[in-house]
Description:
Oligomer: single chain
Number of helices: 6
Number of domains: 1
Radius of gyration: 22 Å
Structural class: alpha+beta
CATH superfamily: OmpA-like domain
CATH architecture: 2-Layer Sandwich
Amino acid sequence: MFKQVSLAVASIMVLSACASKNSVNESSLEMSKANEMSSVDGRNVGMMDASIDVETQELREDMAAQVGDRIFFDFDSASLSAEARATLNAIADYIVTSDGVDTVTIEGHCDERGTREYNLALGDRRAVSIKKYLVGLGVDASQISTISYGKDKPAYQGHTAESWAKNRRGVIVLN
């Protein structure tokens, strides 16, 4: 009896798998295209987000290509380096002078070392540090929101000093 039930279940599974094999529709193809990574000079500038319009995605890509969309931090620090400040000066100018930029989200990220809680707090300090600097350059504070991902969203995989340095970052996302 068990063999017969098992055989019947296996047969149904095989038949249903064959029946749905060619049922890919256009909307699922569009969704997979929408989830592809955009890249500027080999840097990921964010997931294509189906919830944003094409103009906003183009603004994100343009800003990343023109002035950059991220800065990097030293280990266990939320202080802005001279290089980070120079990038943020250009980003602030881009935000203030570009039509179509409604709001900005600043993401704070950390490397994999440290506890999740500590890295969430450090990522928050990094995002707030960027926000304060941009506000000081004339970006309206009400346009800016911050979020910390801590070590939860690494841009680079690996357990090396190079990977860690690339993951200690702040990312400016136009909305």
